[in-house]
Amino acid sequence: MKLIEVSTPAHQKEFIEMAVRFYKNEKNWIRPLDADIEGLFHKETNKLFRNGAKSKRWLLHNDNGETIGRVAAFINPKMKEKQPTGGLGFFECINDQEAAFLLFDTAKAWLESEEMEAMDGPINFGERDKWWGLLVDGFTEPNYNMPWNFAYYQDFFENYGFQIYFKQFTYARNVQGLGFDEKMIARSKVVTDNPDYEFHYLKGKELKEKAAEYFMTVYNKAWARHMGKSITLKEAQMMFAKMKPIIDEKLIYFGFYKGEPISFFIQIPEINQIFKHVNGKMDLIGKLKFLWYKTFSPPNKMLGLVFGVVPEHQGKGVESAMIITYDKMSRSSDFQYKTIEMNWIGDFNPKMMRICEQLLADIYKTHHTYRFLFDSEKPFERHRVFD
């Protein structure tokens, strides 16, 4: 076996194409957009490099020169952990533990040379909402920007010594035909009977001009202390600008108290139902296919991205009121979505898990994020639980 550091355009192409060959017989694998993967490793398209981030990629060849594995390692200065922690991701390997361990060893050696003391994997070289975690249960079609992998990878990670740092659950439920937990209904009524509360989806001018501001306001109160950073209005505006091609105004929902934004949930159509037809490329043909399927065979599944309530209104039934008032709206005959999946619910977030359970949603997929401590004598700690 021979390791090749990715350093040429040909290597970069092979880093993408080898996965296509690996999964060619897997009916549930959906090819990611090539640009979504490759763009992570270039300073022109990944701003983390401007803030001191580093990365390396390798291909693993067998004695015949065929690619049998790949891996990336990276250092993200935004990762704040007790010990300096790097990342390992975009791992693919034939069913051969020796080959897998060689790839792990290579990533570990480079991270150690950069003074890291642990590595998390498989994770993304960027934010947690993309390419994060190892799929261990629910091997159906992946949602957009979510990983899909062979089941035998789990043994590789755990046999090497990786330990579960946290689990990520994807919950699913039908949009119509299901009720709600009785306690949830009662809590909702307390809020909806109060005229100071209002809930509606954003449309037209309000969506265009106010969505980013509303989102920033609620996010910075509800999530910033957990995620370790707040967002600026410019960042929120950029997020909505990127989502513009796929935004459905019926899926952007906010709660207000005396006219001020206090809660949201942001959903998008599950666009992997479209991207599976473009073969990883958004060239002219890919764009035409995207527009055709978006128009004539649109997604019937919606994907929950993020949900938040500002602290001063938590525990009052706002979460329940948002969900139940939205449910009433979604029962109209022109609502195209049949199912909803709530993506990326960490096992360190029991509040969100309870909300999903009260929605009568079931765990549909499970991903593991692992951590490997380079000094085995140090105590291992799982991700702290959000209060």
TrEMBL record:
InterPro entries: Acyl_CoA_acyltransferase, BcerS-like. It comes from the Bacteria. This is N-acetyltransferase domain-containing protein.
